[in-house]
Amino acid sequence: MGRFRAVWRDALALLLSLTDKRTGGQAKLIAALALLYAISPIDLIPDGIPVLGVTDDLLIVPAVLAFAARNLPAPVLYQARGKVNRLPRIWPYVLGAVLGVVALFYGLAWVLARN
């Protein structure tokens, strides 16, 4: 669980550091590709499968963003991690609730499409 939190922390740190002038082009490109994958209809696990269709977005996108965060200059990464640590502790629950609602709508749409 600690590793999962570290991946999400670094993914958020990268997103928060994209506007920093010291952030390199490679990190920005990888972030853009990860976000493009997240909104793309092409997935490893099709989104039409209830609940499971969203899991690849929940695992792959943060992992790629965390990898890109490793390419940030150390001062930028530390500053962004500080910003993430100052975020309210409620954000994982809000994110989970939003993703749960999205998964519920996917499942409902799948059930309705089959009838």
Automatic annotation (TrEMBL):
Is Transmembrane helix set as a keyword in this record? yes
Looking up InterPro entries in the UniProt record yields: DUF1232
Where are the bilayer-spanning segments?
29-46, 90-113
Looking at the record, the residues that make up the DUF1232 domain are 27-62
Q: Give the matching Pfam families.
A: DUF1232 (PF06803)
The protein's superkingdom reads Bacteria
**Which subcellular locations apply to this protein?**
Endomembrane system
Q: Which UniProt keywords apply?
A: Membrane, Transmembrane, Transmembrane helix
Q: What is this protein called?
A: DUF1232 domain-containing protein
